[in-house]
Amino acid sequence: MIARLGTIGGLASKAASRTLIAVVAGVVLLAGAGCAGRDGADPGSSASPDAEESYPLAAPPDGGEVRVVDKGFSAGEKDGKPVVSYGVVVENTSGWVAYLAAVSVRMVDGGGETIEDTVSGTVGDGGADGAVVRDVRAIMPGTQAVLGNSTFVGAEGIADLEVTVDGVQWFPVENDEHEFAELTASDVRTTWGEGRETATLDYTVNSGYSGELEKVWAEAVFRNGEGVIVGGTHPSGTVAGVHGPGASPGQIDVVGWVPSDVDDARTVVYLYP
Questions:
Q1: What number of other Cβ atoms are within 10 A of residue 210's Cβ?
Q2: Does 50 fall in a domain?
Q3: What is the pLDDT of residue 13?
Q4: SS (H, E, C) the chain
Q5: Spatial distance between the Cα atoms of 21 and 86, rounded to a whole number of angstroms
Q6: Contact status, residue 262 vs residue 223, Cβ threshold 8 Å
Q7: Range of the domain at 262
Q8: pLDDT score, position 126
Q9: What is the total count of domains within the chain?
Q10: Are 163 and 68 in contact (CB under 8 A)?
Q11: 262 lies in a domain?
Q12: Does residue 52 lie in a domain region?
């Protein structure tokens, strides 16, 4: 079976609370009606959809995709048990919004065998053996999203992360069902606890939404001094709060084991409503 850890971001219709989608942090590409996506995709191309066409689509008209662009991990020990912290970055190359992208992450050893995430209870079979799958509600055109985790594992010896993306639905930025807008994090500041065993990330939430967001989830990717991903945070550490249009404070209490070689200046926070 595949262990599904739940959805990143909440769903809301324009008729309801007008809650929005996932958008990458301010240090990476930001979505906008006039900015160009990767591979020649024009995010503005989806701004005026055919009124007779129904959504979502199974594939974007411009041939874009959600692809894995970076990943990394660190292994260690906590309370006498093996632990792993990892981060995965995916990117929407289309000019359309990628909705409900199912990102599957499987930890494997040198022989390709699954290393079990004992916290999530992942016991898999078939081609998705041991995968942990998380649904990213939406990724804006030309932007990136991140999935992080810090967890106890069933064995030592992790050698790689096998990451796949499936089941993406596609919407134009302007549509009658959902509002999609910019939601970014800036000015990320790290406060370490004693012995660097715990950490708190403070940042500024920048919201382009038309109304208040009752909850904003956040995940972070940790990199070392060379820019290599060495870990990430799970959204369970996010401090919830109401975020209105414009700027407001946000915080992550880092849950789980933290690698020792994190370069604070390279930590990036990604937000999801």
A1: 11
A2: no
A3: 39
A4: CCEEEEEECCCCCCCCCCCCCEECCCCCCCCCCCCCCHHHCCHHHHCCCCCCCCCCECCCCCCCCEEEEEEEEEEEEECCEEEEEEEEEEEECCCCEEEEEEEEEEEEECCCCECCECCCCCCCCHHHCCCEEEEEEEECCCCEEEEEEEEEECCCCEEEEEEEEECCEEECCCCCCCCCCCEEEEEEEEEECHHHCCEEEEEEEEECCCCCECCCEEEEEEECCCCCEEEECCHHHECCCCECCEEEEEEEECCCCCCCCCCHHHCEEEEEC
A5: 23
A6: yes
A7: 3-45+57-272
A8: 30
A9: 1
A10: yes
A11: yes
A12: no
Name which of 137, 238, 215 is nearest 180 in CA terms: 137
Under 8 Å CB-to-CB from 34, ≥6 apart: which residues? 43, 44
Mapping DSSP onto H, E and C, the string for 97-131 reads EEEEEEEEEEEEECCCCECCECCCCCCCCHHHCCC
Q: Which residue has the tokens 């992208």?
A: 101
C-alpha 84/C-alpha 259 separation (Å) is 9
Residue closest to 98 by CA, chosen among 61, 70, 137: 137
Q: Mean pLDDT for each consecutive 10-residue tract of the chain (273 residues)? A: 49 36 34 36 48 84 97 95 96 95 94 88 46 86 92 94 95 89 92 89 91 85 97 79 88 90 95 78
- The length of the chain is 273
Q: Which two tokens stand for residue 227?
A: 């820019």
Largest CA distance in the chain: 60
